[in-house]
Recover the amino acids of this structure.
């Protein structure tokens, strides 16, 4: 007579009432990337943003003082970002 383990052969699905419950994934929806790749991507994005902002600040001069000019440009950018966020919140489905 041969006896085999039943725990490896049986599969019992989970049920809640009449609805089948699917197993949940333990990982987030975002895939786990290589940390070096994430560091390089973030560094490159911030470098490009800084170079772009520097280019814009040289072309747009509101004030003769570089500090006042920087505050004015950053104020415009932050106002646009806040307005975009407010629009997304107001029109959220």
């Amino acid at each position: 007579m041969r006896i085999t383990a039943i725990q490896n052969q049986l599969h019992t699905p989970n049920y809640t009432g009449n609805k089948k419950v699917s197993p949940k994934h333990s990982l987030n929806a975002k895939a786990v990337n290589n940390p070096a790749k994430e560091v390089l991507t973030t560094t490159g994005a911030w470098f490009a943003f800084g170079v772009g902002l520097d280019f814009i600040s040289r072309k747009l001069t509101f004030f003769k003082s570089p500090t006042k000019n920087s505050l004015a440009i950053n104020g415009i950018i932050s106002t646009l970002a806040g307005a975009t966020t407010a629009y997304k919140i107001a029109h959220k489905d």
User: Anything to note?
Assistant: The mean pLDDT is 76. The helical segments are 35-59, 66-90. The radius of gyration is 28 Å. The first helix runs from residue 35 to 59.
